[in-house]
Amino acid sequence: MSEGAHQGAGKPPVRWLTAAEVDSWLSVVRLMTWLPWSIDQQLRRDSNLGMVEYQVMARLSNSPERTLRMSSLADLANASLSRLSHLVKRLEERGLVRREPDPVDGRFTNAILTDEGFQTLAAAAPGHVAHVRSLVIDVLSAEQLRRLGLAADRIMSHIDTSEIN
Amino acid sequence: MAIRHLPEEGPRGAEEPPVEWLTAAELDSWLSLVRLMTWLPWSIDQQLQRDSNLGVVEYQVLAMLSNRPERRMRMSLLAEVTNASLSRLSHLVKRLEERGLVRREPDPADGRFTNAILTETGFQALAAAAPGHVAHVRALVIDVLSPEQLRRLGQAADRIMSRIDISEIN
Description:
The structure holds two protein chains of two kinds.
Chain A: H1 19-47, H2 51-61, E1 67-69, H3 74-77, H4 81-93, E2 97-101, E3 109-113, H5 115-135, H6 142-156
Antiparallel strand pairs in A: 1-3, 2-3
Chain B: H1 6-9, H2 24-52, H3 56-66, E1 72-74, H4 75-82, H5 86-98, E2 102-106, E3 114-118, H6 120-140, H7 147-161
């Protein structure tokens, strides 16, 4: 694209990516396109759960009383609260999660992992973990994995997630 | 996350091999990657939608076409590269077609296939979108890592990609 793009006279010159930068960036793009898809595939096929559904249930399972405010789940869904509500509603219809007003402050809604949800998560976890191992964890050295996580964190710290909605 | 806590509580068949749960360090790195996969595409999409009225996959399609001889590509190949089912891609390309950015026609070499072709308008739209997109990618990714860190990130991504079986699509 770089050669063909036109530049306005008054604008600062565009710092196009070098060939090496393009290569690395396209590798990241491929990863972001395919890794979530593959994780999702395995979960749907073996456990009838989407990746975000799994993440929501996993976080609930790890919270006191398996309960969290809906708003503290929104970062997982990368979604407005309304999109998250749809997702949680589907989990609720399957009996995996229930929602109720926060007893401390009724303006907030809590999501609670049910026993059935916990069992579903427990049944899904071994296959999910094995898949994550085979695609990611076991193909990198401990040091490579650590660096990958650090690079991800560094990028994340530049993403303004406040714009959501 | 739950992964660590499940071994004691999760029901397990007696004959199944023991699950190799993630260590705390592995889990941290994995969740960092999950966060990235959740938010980076979203942020890229936001910028493109806001400034250029294009989604990230739309941009990808236009960019890929622009790099091809005669700016054309078979729909089936486009679907493969963008990880969209053919029917989802058809919808997307149809919307681009309605905006005059792309047109479709039967492959002259084999009429059973359909080609997508970048129009001049499409090329201009891409050229107008590219500087902002590149600046955003720089600000989030390229310029926050050293060249060595970026290279390693790309290599780790490639290594993971080599394990993903994309033949299952559709």
